[in-house]
Input
Amino acid sequence: MIEEILDNYLRFLQSLNVGHFVRLFWFYIFFEFIRYFVIEWIVLNIWRLSKYLNRDKYEKARQEFLFENPLVSIIIPGKNEGKHIYKLIRSLKEQTYQNIEVIVIDDGSDDDTPTIGRDLEKAGWIDQFVRNEIRGGKASAANTGLRFCKGKFIVHLDADCSYDRDAIEKIIIPFYLDKQVGGVGGNVMVRNYKQSLATTLQAIEYFDTISIGRVVTSKLGVYRIISGAFGAFRADVLEKVKGWDIGPGLDGDITVKIRKIGYKIKFEQDAICLTNAPGTFKKLAKQRLRWDKSLIRFRIRKHHDVLLPNQSFKFSNFISFVENITYNLVLNVKWYVYLSDMIINYRSLILNILITNFLLYTITNFVKFVLYSVYRKRSHAPMSYFLIYIPCMVIYFGYYLRIVRSVAYVQELFFKLSYNDPWNPKKTSQHAKRMGL
Amino acid sequence: MEEKKPEIEQISDSVVKSDGFSYLIIDRFDGLVVEDVEFHDAVIIDGRDEAFVRQIVRRIRAHKKHDIYLKPVYILRGATITDPFIQKLTDGTLYSLDQLPFLKDETERIRTRSSELKFTESISFEAQMIEKVICFMYTSEDRVLEPIPYVYADINYSYPILSVNFSRHDEHSILDILEIAEKEGIFESEFHDKVYLCGNCNSGRLSYREVCPKCSSSNSKTQDIIHHFPCGYVGPIDDFTNEIDDELDCPKCNKRLRHIGVDYDKPSVLHTCNNCGHKFQDYNVNAKCMSCGQDQRAEQLAERTIKKYTLTKKGEMAAINGFVTTAKDIEEIIGSVKYETFKTMLKYEIERLRQTEGSSNVCAIKIDNPSQVYSQLGSDVQKDLLIEIVKVIRSNIRSSDIISFQNSSTIVLSMNEIPTRIAKKILSEIIDILKRLMETTLKSMEVQFHTHVIPLDYGMSPEMHIHQLTKELE
Output
């Protein structure tokens, strides 16, 4: 049986010419390979070169920052996160930059978070523990935190993360490199990469797609999401946009809001944060459904004006949106078009096409993984550990995430299910739904 | 048959006799010598002025001599006096002097019980205080030493018979002394309450305030925080008020707030310090000491337990046989002799003078503020202080002269075969040296000395010499 398939496949390969190859694998060649490998690799080199050329400028900015020594307010909003706070605070106490104030906001926790928070405050480990007796959602908790901040910069962290010793220093420097920068996203990596296959695959995704992808989009000026796990903002800019709006997806939303009032958004690869990724594919699906719905809710609906040629039109914002919509929503649809195209027109070759696609993607993933290691600052895990898992990435990216994304788009486009997500309290979501926010 | 009226004899303006007992009547400060109490069987204080009564009672009960502090004290026309402190330290009230015969039994009882007591004249301050308390309890037939909540006490509670011996600022030492007595088995205790005292000066006169956690100012403004559901804006209520009407408008989305719980809520409060501008949610609770002005966190206060003490059988026996502590009494200090020995030697010196007609003297040096010294130095340092004082005296007098402790605050010494004038001069020099020594070693506290010298008179007994000497010092 296998011999027959192999034999059949070899004959298929021998029969392939360039025209035939392009016709059968147009999706991979024009979208995946060009966008996610060729362009990415070119931009990465440009980024690396400019980083080298601007090293003196970077050092000057760093010196300026350290000389000014501004107060950095760190806000950590969350519900029932008490058990994580100690580990997080320990990593903050180790920071090379110490002119920080740490404010933990408890969004109506019903566990022992208030006790833990008050104890840490009393012990001087955190500067303020603020409690909202009634849960209002992540946005309201973060906005409450803003009320207590005194810093020139605000850093938003997630309670279940921990940070490199120089993370705070590194995430603030870009504000001194370019005065037009309004927000900087940190580099999130997976701490529990060994926990399960799901976390291992996510770790590879964070290395190659999320982190490298953000380096590229940041360089192109179209970086579109400051992760809620680690993001820094100018306090005056947050004041101008009046803080966070209702989520889920509030971190992407605030990034757009800051862009819309004319500020730049940057990604800082060296500012490293470790987070715990969902340990099962079921939990991961839940997380990604939430993330993917926000594309429809925020890009297509709430901020659709970015695409219109009005007074506040900005080309970079326009490109950022188009790129985001194209390579997520449109390509997701196109993939189904491609699949249908192959099934309808090349039904007899479908197995060979699937095998070839699998090989093409796997080879690309291997090459990317090895090649991109040059551009990664450092890793908290041995790269060799991940190599054997690379072939799984085809299934993970090509099928699992794509299906989850498709479900999310349908749920949000036709049913607006993000407004029913218990991640946010109903009392706020129903208003957001009514107002189209 | 007509009942025979009891006889009341007016001896003088201030002394009456009834049933063979002499009552000293105190109705004014002028001309009052507390030591005169010793020569009477009981004291009657005019009770028209509560403050006056309080002061006289204090002076009698605070006296070091048991012949004075154990005397029965009655209040004349004292029905209006409600001060528990006075009530605890007095033995009864009467409406007129005609009622004196009714005091006979009580006066007799106290006198009898006082006569059963033996006093050890310990030179340990704690021992002296414990002895005083248990003797007073024995004569009063009151086995319970109960703390009373008392507004004039710096620790908010008073054990009257102990408190009278301390100034308000040093009253906290009472708790230490009672603990020692409990450890000695003199008392059994029972929890009564807890008090929190200033970490700096041990005063309980504290003002508790909610203060800014950054600058400790109590000047702050409190506002509700509003969370506007539709746009997620969170801010103090001031952000939502407008100048036109009483409505609340969201500064982020300009929508009007309609209904709490529906489109907005108030999840918490925001305190803003008017002094430093710090914004916070939880106040610190600070206690400001009204005695020394120290402002401190509630956690920094000294927590003390107030107990109710009951005299044990051992305590009662200690009162009768004289209390000598095993742990806290000060051993004989090198360079001094025991007080009994001193009195014997004084007797021989008087006898010698009768035959030789020489000039010898008996002198006393008294620390005027012993309770303050004790409360601030503690028992060990106080002992070291006494040793140092004896060293100084010893190095300035001749080796044939004798030093002894009458009690923990009074040193007596004989200076034989020198004129009184010279003895006074030597004593004055000793005091100068002692003062300089105290200034250099105890910078935060002044130790006050009082001295007196009397020439020995072979017509007087040793006891009379000492009585005269100590009377002058009081």
User: Anything to note?
Assistant: Residues 2-45+316-431 of chain A form one domain. Chain A has two domains: 2-45+316-431, 67-278. The radius of gyration of chain A is 23 Å. Chain A touches chain B through 33 residues (CB under 8 Å).
